[in-house]
Amino acid sequence: MKDFSDMAIIDVDSHFEPATFPPGEHPLWELREHLPSRVDVMIESIAGDLYGALPPAQRPDPAALVVRIGGNMGMTSEQLDDLAAAPATPVPGAADADGRIAWMDRVGIDYGLVNPGGEYAGAVALARQFLTDREVRHRAVFLCNDYLADAFAEHTNRVSPVTIIDTDDLEWSIGELTRMRERGSRAFFVAAMPFEGRSPAHPAVDRLWHAATDLGMVAVLHIGNTPARFDGG
């Protein structure tokens, strides 16, 4: 039997998700007027392309749709309210970089890719759907990337912040990959969606993949970043 004892264990899907932020300390505080509600983000994550395919007059109210989804899961409206109001279950290192490294040591993880998400990046990971103004979108991505890089600045030998990019603007994204690689990132989010209106495999997108290869970065196709419908061209 082959001996795997000398192989590194890499966690390719961990998250850094503080449950709440004090007023004014949210990474996207300056853009709060542009951000969608939690319900909108939830609907987009669960069934966004299907919801968007309906004529506007036929789309159910998002809050009512969440209740209906919960009902299909056997949850009452009271249970949904309780779930929304309940504090997040604390997980070792979920929102503390030093705690994350200590937890990795305990369970034997050598290196981890750390995704943004939750309270500060849920909408930004879906930025093309919600943040239609390019300058606002780029600012939001920049702030989220910096927040994660700041949190793990002392631990990039053990973890890589996963960089968010804007696949509707490849030149800007190449610049952001370069900036974040200097901050310790070795991975970046992609979605199963067109890149500047083309398939990710189109030759026009090669400059992004060349840049990632030259920088030594890998693409992460995360669950929830893949719509049911793919118009890749």
Give the SSE layout.
Elements: E1 10-15, H1 38-53, H2 62-72, H3 77-85, H4 97-107, E2 111-115, H5 118-125, H6 127-130, H7 134-151, E3 159-163, H8 170-182, E4 187-190, H9 206-215, E5 218-221
Parallel strand pairs: 1-2, 2-3, 3-4, 4-5
Q: What this model shows, in words?
A:
This protein is of the alpha/beta class and 233 residues long. It contains nine helices and five strands. It has helices spanning 38-53, 62-72, 77-85, 97-107, 118-125, 127-130, 134-151, 170-182, 206-215; strands at 10-15, 111-115, 159-163, 187-190, 218-221. The termini are far apart.
In short:
The protein is 43% helix and 10% strand.
Biggest β-sheet strands, sense, barrel: 5 strands, parallel
Q: Whole-number radius of gyration?
A: 19 Å
Secondary structure: helix percent? 40-55%
> Percent of residues in beta strands?
5-15%
